[in-house]
Amino acid sequence: MKKAKRILSAVVAGVMVLSLSACGGGSGSASGSASGSAPAAGSTPAGAEGKITISYWTTNRHDQAYMTPLIEEFNATNDKNIYIDFQVYADNYSQMLDLAFSTNTAPDVYQLAGTDPIEVVVKEKGQLLDLAPYMDDEYRARFGEGAFVEGINALGDGIYSLPYTASAARLFYNQDIFDRVGIDGPPQTLDELVADAKLVTEQLGSEGIYGIAGNFKSAASSVARSIDMIVMRSGGTRGGFDYKTGTYDFSSYKPVLEAFKEMFATGVSFPGSESLDIDPLRTQFAAGNIAMYISISHAEPGVYASQFPTDANWNCAQLPTVNGKVEGKQQLWFGGSNLGINPATEHPDEAWEVMKFLHSDEVMGPYHTAGLGTVMIPSAVESAEAPESIQKMPNLAINADDQNWPPLPAGVVVEGKDYYTTCVECIFGVTDIDSAIEDLNTRYNAAYDKLVDGGAERIVYPNFDPLKQDTAK
Fold this sequence. Notes:
The chain is 37% helix and 11% strand. Helix 1 (3-15) runs antiparallel to helix 2 (64-77), helix 1 (3-15) packs parallel to helix 14 and helix 7 (190-204) runs parallel beside helix 10 (254-264). By secondary structure, it is an alpha+beta fold. Strands 1-3-2-4-14 form a five-stranded mixed sheet. Strands 9-12-8-13 form a four-stranded mixed sheet. Strands 5-6 form a two-stranded antiparallel ribbon. It has helices at residues 3-15, 64-77, 93-102, 118-124, 137-141, 175-181, 190-204, 219-225, 227-233, 254-264, 278-286, 300-307, 348-358, 361-369, 378-382, 388-392, 419-427, 433-453; strands at residues 28-29, 52-58, 82-88, 109-111, 154-155, 158-159, 165-166, 169-174, 210-212, 241-242, 247-248, 290-296, 314-317, 339-341, 374-375. Strand 2, helix 2 and strand 3 form a beta-alpha-beta unit.
């Protein structure tokens, strides 16, 4: 796929200024035709005459300029007599996909909607083909160790999607502010995080510059990208669930909540953080008014290149932990699955050839270099130049400490406030932390016990280790 390298030089300048968080919202196909709704049944795309047409649906508008010419090249040169009908969809993709499956007009290859656990998509909806029979040991090995995770892209012996791109939470900081107050580098422990935030606010608060901020307007978003990640990275539970015992235990959240409470309830943080959304927070960071905040690795480079341009000397670091040691893997913000094959496709072998093409080193290597996504496929990344953003800020890259955890129990209905809301109330001093943890343990275990009593299998991995992710039962 030599053309991929030629295309890269033409598109990289344009794609680097796009916000990578802006997927969807547009439509088109490999031939450039509009595609706001599903193609008419039985229609033949231009150039597909006499070939086996494999329809491919995605919502990724941000990479359309890169993918379109590569798919056109594939259509013109592949020796399998395959034509990819490439369609990029906008809003209501999940509903459109379900409608297509219910009317037998679903695509052959498609981007998963991400609204249901893979178990639901496979077992209840029957919308994914098992890819395992197509994959030999050599092909599996190119995805690296730990690539196939139960409940993420695999169920039992079946594999239903493949790793593609990923993102992870990171600490973003303003080096100019650090230099002004004499901070040598980003904090590695929670104590250092608190001390650095205090130092910045004490010395620069009179100028409207504060040590830290959080997007606590959305409790789920803010806690999931900060508190949860630090707890896991420090060797605690994921979402309060202890896989080793099969019960909920939020006690590992205590030191993290205490540190955040010290910053956000004592005037060290940016004023109004309790009602701040992520984009207003980014605006203040771009203006040089915030020293540190936690967000997602794939989004920030594009945000500050185009949406909120800044002259600040900013960078990113791994999240701090309770004691400075990494004692657990950090859950990926997303990653591990992306595309699947319709089990009702009339051409499964050809659909697999399309999957192989879309995940190939020749496509995904330059994709990574162009900054279109942090690629999870080791064989593609190893053969590609790192994107400019990662060359400048290496901690944007996914590393060995970033990995999918097993899925949390599904269908747990908890009475009262969820743990995200409770955590935010603890941070701002509304709720006592010890009492909140005891209450969360009681309510979440009661809800899970009820689910198990109703027939659900209790998830227990007796040898589970946050660093090793052993899911043997």
